[in-house]
DNA sequence: TGAACTGTAATCACGACGATTACAATTTCG
DNA sequence: CGAAATTGTAATCGTCGTGATTACAGTTCA
């Protein structure tokens, strides 16, 4: 089984969808979100950290504290979420450099270029959908991607 | 740093490019390929296994044995290589199921659908290039993906 | 026959990831 | 004010995927 990317994106989508489904003025604690997503509260806070810094969600400490969306669900695209969590990390696995071999140099460059292209295509697909779409179940099980 | 996919694809591209660059009737040993790619000979054989079964390369045991391309470099698309090595493994990381929560169900379905879309888009990008392109350095460092 | 390979299983070490624990800081409420 | 609830964050731990390494049987050529 090939290594897939980590589950932060999945957890983020899950949690954001939950937050999108509650009343506007209600906040939800990390523990509640974590229980629903089947992960650890600390993990939830770590995942939501970057999203808070980007202004997608807000958090409140103290009793009756918790999390809520800072934007409307339709204003949060999955591409944005991906970018915030994955940053510029490569999608392809590039093995170590091999400076001695000329062909190796070329291969490295090709793979790097491909990685950029693939990352763009990946985000482009995710950009087509928002948290609202996930909440409404509006992501078809099968659809033709731009091939 | 997020977990990227494994390096099998990168190794495969590297090795295939090397094989594409030699005379037609010359075979190269796993050790030679491994040294050039900076990996282990056993790893090379494991990576090339699926490609051999798919008819992309052939191997010969015994003295003066080794590997050679079974197809012309322009006939080996990177998309094919990716599919052979990655199979149907998910690109997105899907966290464990959460049957108790209705929203969770929907999120799982959405993520699964997205994973298919993304995998398709990824392969579509790779399909645009062949081993020949890598060998010739014909993969531009920057190009607009279909956004 | 012996050397040079492939094919493959078994084991090992490393590293990423997420769980868990712990604790300081913040906020609400009685 | 003080207790309870909750975030923010560091530190540690266990698990798992990955590739290196070793070992060895089978194959082929000289």
TrEMBL record, chains A, B:
Pfam families: Rrf2 (PF02082). One of its GO terms (cellular component) is cytosol. The lineage of its organism: Bacteria, Bacillati, Actinomycetota, Actinomycetes, Pseudonocardiales. This is Rrf2 family protein. Signal peptide: none annotated. GO terms for molecular function: DNA-binding transcription factor activity.
């Amino acid at each position: 089984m090939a290594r897939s990317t980590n589950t932060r994106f999945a957890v983020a989508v899950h949690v954001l969808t939950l937050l999108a489904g509650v009343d506007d003025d209600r906040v939800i604690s990390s523990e509640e979100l974590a229980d629903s997503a089947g992960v650890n509260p600390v993990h939830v806070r770590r995942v939501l950290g970057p999203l808070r810094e980007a202004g997608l969600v807000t958090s409140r400490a103290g009793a009756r504290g918790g999390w809520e969306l800072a934007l409307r669900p339709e204003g949060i695209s999955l591409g944005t979420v991906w970018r915030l969590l994955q940053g510029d990390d490569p999608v392809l696995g590039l093995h170590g450099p091999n400076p001695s071999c000329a062909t190796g140099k070329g291969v490295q460059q090709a793979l790097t270029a491909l990685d950029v292209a693939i990352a763009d295509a990946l985000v482009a697909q995710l950009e087509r959908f928002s948290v609202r779409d996930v909440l409404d179940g509006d992501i078809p099980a099968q659809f033709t991607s731009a091939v």
